[in-house]
Amino acid sequence: MKVKKYMAPSMPEAMKRIRAELGEQAVILNSRMVYSGGFLGLFKKKNIEVIAAMDPEVNHLRPQLKDKPKIISKDSVQPRMQPIDEEKDKETLAITKEMKELRTLIHQLSDRQSLRIEAYPDDIQRILIQLSDQGVENIYLHQIGEHLLTKWKESKEEIEFLTIREWTLNFLKNKIAPIQGTLPPFTKKFVNVVGPTGVGKTTTLAKCASLAVLEQRKKIAFITTDTYRIAAIEQLKTYGNLLNVPVEVVYKLSDFQKAVEKFNDFDHIFIDTAGRNYRDPVYVEELKKVIDFDEDMDTYLVLSLTAKQQDLEEIIEIFEKAPITQFIFTKMDETRSCGALFNLMMKYGKGVAFITNGQNVPDDLIEADAEIMTKLLLEVEKK
Q1: Which residue among 56, 145, 288, 365 is least crowded, i.e. fewest CB within 10 A of its CB?
Q2: For residues 141 and 130, what is the distance between their CA atoms, to the nearest angstrom?
Q3: Tell me, what does this protein do in biology (predicted)?
Q4: Residue 100 has what pLDDT?
């Protein structure tokens, strides 16, 4: 596979060069605005950087129209289903996988490029350093920095740091709000939590259930598919006793369907699942053998903020087949970095339902919204 980076003053100019060198079958892997020259962040020259790729093997997979036989008559031999060329299909899948991995690599390389924070005015530098310490990726820091610099240049008055921080809060809120949405929690009957082992799924489910029972006065029930750990079943039964709600243990899809029928007149059914090796895609397929995802269901992927972002991305890639409605982030009290929360929202276009900040049930549960998450990133205390 041939990969090449192009720099041009505009996208049409870049595309013209790409077509000339790589041909019409070239694939755009990444594009971004870059700035060069200038003095103290001013008068910089703007260009677009485009990374394109071309795999000569792809051309062999495309049917050659000139070699297709001509149809002499409509009444000639009826067409038959052509046998699937398994080798060609495997080759196509392999190329698709390679392209996906390459895009991920390009994203990582782009993010690792040094961000020249020192080129910005001092107060903007303070904001960018703070967000960088939180773990916000360079690709987003650059967007924030350029937005703040533009407003700083347009202002005719002396700008205080608090004003720049307010600009940042508004910018982040405007980025988060369209993804986050405004729907309240538990709009569907089934509330399903999935995720890897050790992230606190059962405790989080109990916190959510407590919110539904104690604040919303809903009639709820628990279903657990976590039959791998006796302790998990007993833990959920303990929460069930405290909340005075029934618990049903299911082992297969027919058990699940019977439990659904049993709890037909309940407002919500909260479903606990086993934590397994997230690197094994078979786990998600096993979930589908026990849980009917076609039901009126919201599925929340529970992730720990203490995990590395690369690991979190791998988890999301596996569980996206579930499919996932929103994220729930746990263990905020065990880390000082919340940048992954923002990065993953931007990358996968999914909102955050809740954030947990301790083990206490039901207290340590934060219902997430754009304002709360923005203030977490800038470490602004909520009034």
Answers
A1: 56
A2: 10
A3: Necessary for flagellar biosynthesis. May be involved in translocation of the flagellum.
A4: 58
Which pLDDT does position 106 carry in this prediction? 57
Residue in the block written with tokens 């206490």: 360
- 109, 184, 204, 330 from 363: Cα distances, Å: 41, 18, 11, 13
CA distance 271 to 290: 11
Handedness of CA 118, 119, 123, 124 (dihedral sign): negative
**Beta strands 268-272 and 190-194, pairing class:** parallel
Q: 246: cis peptide before it, omega within 30°?
A: no
What distance in Å separates the CA atoms of residue 18 and residue 12, rounded to the nearest whole number? 10
Nearest to 327 by CA among 364, 307, 298, 306: 298
* pLDDT at 90 exceeding the cut of 70: no
pLDDT bin (cut points 50, 70, 90) of residue 187 is confident
Written as six digits, the tokens of 230 are 């006796």
Pick the more confident residue, 377 or 185: 377
Instruction: Please name the residue that has the structure tokens 């049917």.
Output: 63
Q: Which of 55, 50, 49 is nearest to 99 (CA)?
A: 55
The one-letter code for the residue type at 200 is G
Going by DSSP bridges, is the β-strand pair 27-36/2-8 parallel, antiparallel, or unpaired? unpaired
Is 175:381 a contact under the CB 8 Å cutoff?
no
Q: Please state, in angstroms and rounded to a whole number, the distance separating the CA atoms of residues 23 and 54.
A: 8
Distance CA 166, CA 164 (A): 5
Pairing mode, strands 326-330 and 297-304: parallel
